[in-house]
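Readers of this paper often ask what the protein records in our data store actually look like. Nothing more is needed to write down the fold, since each code stands for a local backbone conformation. Below, we set out a record of this kind in full and without editing:
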Amino acid sequence: MSDQDDNETQGVVFGVLAGVIFGVIALVAGVALWATNQSSAQPAAVAVAVEEEIVPVGDALVKVFFDVDVATLTAVDSDGVVVKTIEVLKLQPRAIVLLSGFHDPSGDAAHNAELARARAEAVRAALVAGGVPPEKVKLRKPESTQGSGAPEEARRVEVRVQ
């Protein structure tokens, strides 16, 4: 064999080897990208499904009422909610605490929904600060109160232990 034949053979071997290495790197990168997309998409779908699947059962344990355009709890409301909720959780240790924030249909819908959520989050914060494990407290999508009734009925958070 001549030097030229050896150089051609080496060139073919290096070309094939480079092609195989490039193919393996592309395959690994593709699999890693696919796995990342799968893992990041799945929890979001699960989180949405969990929140929508929780349906209130029975009457509310406690209703917390708020002033107009206010999302802060009074100390009295906070203490009462925490005490009653913890009493029931002691009897039902596997239960969850479901919070539903309400608003009336008048005014800006986006502002009202955010206010209802902020009220529910204020109740959640009081429960967690009072000793309720955070993983046991679930929030529902804000709800609009329909029909007639006392105005404060629209400005409430309902607490259920179920």
Remarks:
- The helical segments are 3-53, 75-91, 109-129.
- The chain has two domains: 1-53, 62-161.
- The beta strands are 62-65, 97-103, 137-139, 143-144, 156-161.
- Residues 38-51 have pLDDT under 50 and may be disordered.
